[in-house]
Amino acid sequence: MTRKFLPKFISIKFKIILITMFTVGVALLFTDTALIVYDVFAFKRITRQKIATLASVIGSNSTAAITFMDQAAAIEILSALRKSDSIISGCLYTNYGNLFATYLREASKNGNKASFCPEQAGELGFFFFRDTLTHSMPVLLNKERIGTITLKTDLLEISNRLSQYALALFITFIISAILAFWFLSVFQKLIINPILQLASSARLISQKKDYSIRAAVKYDKKISDEVTLLIDAFNDMLDKLQEGQEQLKEAVHTRDDFLLIAAHELRTPMTPLKLNIQLIDKMLKAKKPAESVLEIATIANRQVDRFAMLIERLLDISRIASGQLKLNLEEVDLSSMVSEIIQRFKEEFTVSKCSYELSLQQPIIGQWDRLRLEQVIINLIDNALKYGKCKPVKISTWSIANSAYLAIEDHGIGMTAEEQRRIFMMFERVVT
Amino acid sequence: MNASANAVSSAQTDKSLEYRIKGAFLYNFVKFIDWPDTFFKKNSSPIVICILGKNPFPDSLLNALTTKKIQNRQLFLQNLSSAKDYPGCHIIFVSLSEKPYLHHTMEHLCNAKALTVSEITGFTKSGGAIQLFTDESKIRFEINTDATGKAGLNVSSKLLNLAKKAPPQEDHKEEKEYTQESQNKNSDKYTDKYND
Fold first, then answer.
1. Is residue A98 less than 8 Å (CB to CB) from chain B?
2. Residue A236 C-alpha from the chain's centroid
């Protein structure tokens, strides 16, 4: 319900100021209240002590006056009370409790009310009544009670003090509020500015889509706080974003390169295929003998097969990328597969006049997808033939424990460690 | 105090009231004087009040006083027939009857380690310590601090504050105030105040 009455946006600056001012206010209020309460109690205690001392001195001084029934002397002694503004009345009583001498504060003075002394001595002790304190005590001579003295004092000083306190409280409150407000206006920048910087950096990044922008940390790193942590986390996140973005760019670049190469590879067999089909077309129109047409058609057919194989490989790539590649595992002997493939390459080796070495451990039986594995071996041998500078290619298989090893070694330009790492990533190829 | 109040409340129009009050004064003087221990033989020795000449105090008052204790000492009354007999007295009241022989009496008493009290006019001038007199129908007293000092007595400042500074000048004035009329007035005033 209360949310309704609050604006939707309240700045941290305002909140900090509000919280601090409230804290300062409450603290001041409690401190001052405690002080006032203590002061009132202390004042009452002191007033009691003062009035008791005064009564005892006046009483002691009046012993002779009471004993010798010298009323004038007693009144003179009591008149010393005039020195104290707060004493309303002083009453001396004989041992029989009869009023003997009185001192009354002038009624007109400071708007004080007229006072009086009761005809009979009252009870002994202290009595707080409204704004007055009455104290009665015995007058002793040689430890013998010869009368009673009653002093009555006003407690106007308490109310005066209270109003002075209220004023002081109000003034200190205002001054504290102003000071706190000023300090906060100065120091809130320490908290607010980094946050504002962070916010503006974030806005800039989302506008420009530039992940190289970083939130600046202008102040000393040693004075780290939650905002510093936030900025650090923000910058870390940007680092990761930037890295990711660069990787993505690189990946896109690699893919584009690959597509270019793939298109080129696909176009290469396309040209002789088209020529052959045109040739078949011409030969059929010229009604050439079927044998010669069939010969060309066989070549074209082989070219189409190769073309299909290329397309199949491309499809494999997309299957691998989308995780749709399924392996048909079956029991295969790796060594016999290698020697079978080598038989197929025999002609190419003899044509290119290159040699090879075989070192096969018989047999190495495992669960493989025959076609894929064949493809791997063919690719590697093909690659070794292409880039092996016609030096002997060494092909070996062996097994250790549960692992099978296949090594095809050529003596071409080779690959750096970095290239070896990259070669297993998608669309990657090493520049030749 | 008690004696004084009793005297006041049972005020009569004769000299009895006056001497009751004066007797009470005598008793109260004892309270406002610091009695050195050297004045007494023993800790329990009584304070001896001696009356030189004709005893003016009513017997009832004197009996009441002897039952009292001041500073843990009993009061003891003694009549002196001659001023020479003063040793052993702590307070010596010189009766009006001694007025004609005052000079001679004081020759003896000036050396006494005692408080001398009298209602004889000019008593303090003659070397006496306290002189009682009546002023505006009230019984007042005058203290000769030289005499009390010489006697080795410390008189309380409270008592000195009540004492009249200047001694009365003339005998006849004092005599006049002892008239029936003034005494009536005096007693009326007291009864007004205390008999309600």
1. yes
2. 13
Inter-chain touch B31–A67, beta carbons under 8 Å: yes
Q: Say if residue A361's pLDDT is above 60.
A: yes
Q: Is A65 on the interface with B (CB under 8 A)?
A: yes
- Asked if A238 and A205 count as a contact pair (C-beta separation under 8 A), the reply is yes
Query: Which residues of chain B form beta strands (DSSP E)?
Result: 33-34, 47-52, 69-70, 73-80, 91-94, 115-118, 130-135, 138-143, 154-155
What are the domain boundaries of chain A? 12-175, 194-249, 327-432
How many angstroms away from the CA of B127 is the closest CA of chain A? 24
Angle at A145 between CA A142 and CA A149, to 5 degrees: 115
The model's confidence at residue B36, banded by pLDDT at 50, 70 and 90, is: confident
Per residue in A14-29, pLDDT tens? 888 888 888 888 888 8
What mean pLDDT do residues A391-413 have? Answer: 89
Domain map of chain B by residue range? 13-194
Q: Which CATH number, 3.90.550, 1.25.40, 3.40.50, 1.10.287, labels domain B13-194?
A: 3.40.50
Pick the CATH number of A327-432 from 3.50.50.60, 3.30.200.20, 3.20.20.70, 3.30.565.10: 3.30.565.10
Closest-CA residue of B relative to A120 is: B196
Min Cα distance B148 → chain A (Å) is 18
What does the angle CA B50 – CA B55 – CA B56 come to, to the nearest 5 degrees?
A: 125
Cβ neighbors of A399 (< 8 A, separation 6 or more) are A361, A364, A405
Average pLDDT rounded to a whole number, residues A270-284 = 89
Query: Which of B1, B162, B196 minimises the CB distance to A70?
Result: B162
Q: Regarding the domain with residue range A12-175, which homologous superfamily does it belong to in the CATH classification?
A: PAS domain (3.30.450.20)
**What is the distance between the alpha carbons of residues A308 and A306, in angstroms, rounded to a whole number?**
5
Query: Which residue in chain A has the smallest CA separation from B141?
Result: A68
Give the pairing type, strands A403-409 and A393-400.
antiparallel
* Separation between Cα atoms, residue B16 and residue B10, nearest integer Å: 10
B138 contacts on A by Cβ (under 8 Å): 70
CA distance A227 to A16: 15
A56 burial (CB, 10 Å; 0-12 / 13-18 / 19+) is middle
How would residue B178 be classed by pLDDT, with cut points 50, 70 and 90?
very low
Structure tokens at A333: 């002997």
**Looking at per-residue confidence, does A371 or A398 come out higher?**
A398
Label residue A136 by pLDDT band (50, 70, 90).
Answer: very high
**The pTM is what?**
0.55
Rounded CA separation A244/A234 (Å):
15
ipTM: 0.71
Chain A to chain B Cβ contacts (< 8 Å): 41
A192–B contact, CB cutoff 8 A: no
Average pLDDT value over all residues in chain B = 77
Q: Do A94 and B8 touch (CB under 8 A)?
A: no
Separation between Cα atoms, residue A167 and residue A172, nearest integer Å = 9
Of A61, A96, A146, the CB nearest to B158: A61
- CA of B104, closest CA in chain A: separation in Å? 31
Q: Which of A66, A67, A141 to mutate to test the interface with B (most CBs of B within 10 A)?
A: A67
The SS3 assignment for A248 reads: helix
pLDDT (0 to 100) of residue B8 = 46
